[in-house]
Amino acid sequence: PKIILFESVYSMDGDIAPISEICDLAEEYCAYTFIDEVHAVGLYGDQGGGIAQRDGLQDRIDIISGTFGKAFGVYGGYIAGSERILDAVRSFSPGFIFTTALPPSVIAGALTSVKYLKTENGVELRRQHQERATHLKQMLVDIQLPVVWSESHIVPVMVGEASLCKQASDLLMDEFSIYVQPINYPTVPRGTERLRFTPSPLHTDEIMQHLVNSLDLVWDRLGIPRADQIGSVSFLDE
User: Fold this and answer.
1) Rounded distance between C-alpha atoms, residue 218 and residue 176, angstroms
2) Catalytic: 166?
3) Active-site entry in 2, 70, 137, 166
4) pTM
5) Which domains does the chain have, with CATH numbers?
6) What is the pLDDT of residues 4-47, one digit of tens each?
7) What is the DSSP string of 66-89?
8) φ/ψ (deg, to 5) at 50
């Protein structure tokens, strides 16, 4: 059988897959669809089910995988699909068969998070989350940092050189107590090295202003090009 595997939210640029078009392609070629929602579950959809739920496309997906980390705050993961598909995984997948089951306490924590994010409180957290991400992007654009402006909550800031990216990360930690990992090759292509931020609903204006001020100083100290020097990679809605 043929299968199309794809993510809903791509973690490096924050872009979102054209799920409907991919499903059309799968139907044309009689292929299964397998969507990875690890960067979207809890954060999108009426009940936190992810991008496919948000767009009303869950019934067109054969297999959905997600994580209990990230938005749900614990660890582990899951797949959802038809009874036949799940039975095949249970019977033939070494990664499942030879993996120790999650502890009951972790399952309880994950279940509590899932239930909470399905409530009206979860809806409000998702609204706040999107507002915080958009606000941070605009703050960074205002000081001419080269932000990749995407539809999602992921906020990549381009550096473009591996050693500078590592130096920027070290400076942020050593002098400003801000921890952000440098993202270098082979995670991203050479020349697209970056710092990546994912603000939460609980990051206040004060916290984000500290980040922006710190990045401003780091960019100046290391001489990292700004958006107006390299051609902006920000994509703002008109």
Assistant:
1) 10
2) no
3) 70
4) 0.90
5) 3-118 (3.40.640.10), 126-229 (3.90.1150.10)
6) 999 999 999 999 999 999 999 999 999 999 999 999 999 999 99
7) EESSGGGSS--EEEEE-HHHHHHH
8) 115, -175
